[in-house]
Write a structure and sequence with these properties.
35% of the residues lie in helices and 11% in strands. It contains 15 helices and 13 strands. The structure holds pyridoxal-5'-phosphate (PLP).
Length: 486
């Protein structure tokens, strides 16, 4: 690892000094009361445990806390991840004491308010998607996929044959094949056509009586909307197969189209991408599954239901796929989502979709020709360029991503989707001001110019970050977490 000594923040061990102290409180004169840290918590086993003054400790950790790029620091166009601003109001609402202090083992009569919120969120998501039920249990998008596929398996089993294969377009998200294998199916890839969409004649050929479903990411990872989605559903339904929609990127069309009318049987959506909740640091997400009524008998338990004015947890679903997690979902994420929906209203949600598409297209138009666009189909919420023009000068997508760090921009997703060699997948999201997007476009143009003039310079980036070029794999697999005196 090369440290950047232009802006170093040393290790806490390095600023330690003999005899420095934070605060020492005097004895208070009561037996068994000691306001200083008790000896049992001191880490004697760490050699040279640092001693610092309080000022130094506060400064050190304040500086460290600002070294990571985050959405509160600047532009974060990580494709497929929807790293958008999340209204702070939703944080306030989800941390209201009556929500956070509700223990999940409390009897139903004491948590009527929380159950009501779950019920109302389901109701809103039903109205928005036009699907018949929405299951709010899944912990994340990938978990929603698994639960959806388990229900598809159950539906086929009830008809006498679980079937064997799930078709997955080569433009799908990587979690799709994993979920299909976990639910006991064999994943079979189908190639996209030259527009980056599902090839209907190929689909027709591949949809045999062995096929349980097609898992379709829409908009797909090229940021392209499947124009023939109704035909796709018809081809599958004719053979008794289902259409599973990966709607993690629902922010691209929320409110604008009815998922039900597209012919979708099951869809998951990521609350943490479309309906608020900051994410990206591995924190809790939520991937609700919207279903048609055909799947209601297989829903996982428990499901929140309403009877008269009472809300209760229904464990009595005869052909349920069973319990899929502890308790009732990621409740805090559900609260944020409901708060977000109430703030924006239906019109506001439609605006979300329109602006996310508008900004991605603004970037596309501004950078077309400077970076290559492999697929020319209309762009939805994200745009996928590649590095083929820059590669002629020996510069790769990763070099461009690293150079962007010097402009204070989080790099876009690189080398994904796999069907675009050298991909740079850019998702601005709907919450960026135009000025910020303009700065990004400026940076991308500037980098292209730099590559023309001095490709080696770009290959040496970044120059202004606390840590310069890392060995990406080593840094992730073998992070140096312990300090040893040299
Ligand atoms: C993010 C994403 C997922 C996975 O969601 P997680 O919550 O990270 O499990 C699945 N599909 C698509 C298209 C996504 O963008």
């Amino acid at each position: 690892m090369k440290l950047n000594y232009k802006r170093p923040e040393p290790l806490i061990f390095e600023i330690s000094g003999e005899g420095k102290r934070g605060i020492n409180l005097p004895e208070v004169g009561f037996e068994n009361v000691n306001l200083n840290i008790s000896k049992e918590y001191l880490r004697e086993e760490i050699e040279g445990f640092p001693s610092l003054s309080q000022t130094e400790v506060v400064r050190h950790f304040t500086k460290l806390s600002s070294l990571n790029h985050s959405i509160d620091h600047g532009f974060y166009p990580l494709g497929s991840c929807t790293m958008k601003h999340n209204p702070k109001l939703n944080e306030r609402v989800s941390s209201l004491k009556n929500f956070t202090n509700a223990h999940p083992n409390l009897p139903e009569k004491y948590v009527q308010g929380s159950l009501k919120l779950i019920h109302l969120l389901e109701k809103s998501l039903k109205e928005i998607t036009e699907m018949d039920r929405v299951i709010l249990l899944p912990s994340a998008g990938a978990n929603g996929e698994l639960i959806g596929m388990m229900m598809i398996r159950k539906a086929h089993e009830m008809k006498g044959n679980p079937r064997k294969i799930v078709l997955i377009p080569d433009s799908a998200h990587g979690t799709n094949p994993a979920s299909c294998v976990f639910s006991g199916y064999q994943a079979k890839e189908i190639k996209s056509n030259e527009k980056g969409m599902v090839d209907l004649s190929l689909l027709e050929k591949e949809t045999t009586e062995d096929v349980a479903a097609l898992m379709l990411t829409n908009p797909n990872t090229l940021g392209v909307f499947e124009e023939n989605i109704k035909e796709i559903a018809e081809i599958l339904h004719k053979k008794g197969a289902y259409l599973y929609l990966d709607g993690a990127n629902y922010n691209a069309f929320v409110g604008l189209y009815s998922v039900k009318k597209m012919g979708v049987d099951i869809m998951h959506l990521n609350l943490h991408k479309t309906f608020s909740t900051p994410h990206g640091g591995g924190g809790p997400g939520s991937g609700p599954v919207a279903i048609t009524k055909e799947f209601a008998p297989y829903m996982p338990i428990p499901i929140v239901e309403k009877e008269g004015e009472r809300y209760y947890l229904n464990y009595d679903i005869p052909n349920t796929i069973g319990e899929v997690r502890s308790f009732y979902g990621q409740f805090g994420v559900l609260v944020r989502a409901y708060s977000y929906i109430l703030q924006l209203g239906f019109e506001g949600l439609c605006e979300v979709a329109k602006v996310s598409v508008l900004l991605a297209n603004y970037i596309r138009k501004s950078l077309e020709g400077i970076y290559r666009l492999k697929y020319l189909s209309p762009t939805m919420h994200e745009v996928v360029f590649d590095d083929s023009l820059q590669e002629k000068k020996g510069v790769k997508n990763m070099d461009i991503a690293k150079r962007l760090l010097d402009f204070g921009v989080h790099p876009p997703t690189v080398s994904f989707p796999l069907i675009v060699h050298g991909a740079l997948m850019i998702e601005p999201t709907e919450t960026e001001p135009k000025e910020e997007v303009d700065k990004f476009i400026f940076a991308m143009k500037k980098i292209a110019e730099e590559i023309d003039g001095d490709p080696e310079f770009v290959k040496g980036a970044p120059y202004t970050t606390p840590v310069l070029r890392l060995d990406e794999v080593k840094a992730a697999r073998f992070p140096k977490l312990r300090w040893k005196k040299e």
